[in-house]
User: Fold this.
Amino acid sequence: MWGSAIDCQTMSSSRQSALRPDSAKASVVGAATHWPPNSEKKRHSHIRHQLMYSARGVIRVTTDSGRWILPPSKAIWITGGTPHALLVKRPVDLIVLWVRRDAPGTPEWTGCNVVNVSPLVRELICKCCSQPWDYLPKSPAARLAQVLLEQLEALEQAPLELPEPSDHRAARVAQMVRANPADRRTLAELASAAGASHRTIERLFVTETGMSFGRWRVRYKMLVALEQLAHGESVGNAAHAVGYENPSSFIVTFRATFGTTPSAYFQDSSESNGTTG
Assistant:
């Protein structure tokens, strides 16, 4: 369920191009959008910051520096001026807020940040989405927007980012992993296929992504699995898709990555969205 988000103006992703949030009078403006399967929005940017909240479904966000996955009950902050592309594989209901850079209470974030949305922040997002786009600076709507922005920095960051290596050899290894998440080849084998030594690839991953290759690959596998689980796939099938023969070992890795088990992760998502099943 959308909760109070149903009061927003709901539009398809194809109609979003008609929106001009950067020229809106109000400091925070929003819209509820529906994305049909296999929708995408090519690389673009806004002057304003963006806050996107997934009420249903999973959306992928890609920038020059990395990739993010946005599952239900999470929100992603995209700093104004950051070029990004959006992709969905299955239907998504999304609330998008556009935040003026000088809006009171704006978090001092850079790049993209994914946060776990509390029930309070969810309601504030929905309420701000339903406000007119021309409210006055000292109006109740403006004060509500400031409360939302001030609450954001207190939210827990979610580990849903996958930094991308830029060196062509490391990028080639990353592409091979993405092409087959269940691939069991060692780093030495992947590096050889990319025309480099395993030491070179390991060094490049640490330097360019801040992660060892092993940690990067595990993060990618868990993000792939998370997306499948969000679409209703079973734990066993999701584990198999990313190369785990034993669901128990997959659950251990999932818990180490996200701090909870798959069932608890999506139970929390349902409760945050006010749903029961």
Notes: Residues 1-7, 9-17 have pLDDT under 50 and may be disordered.
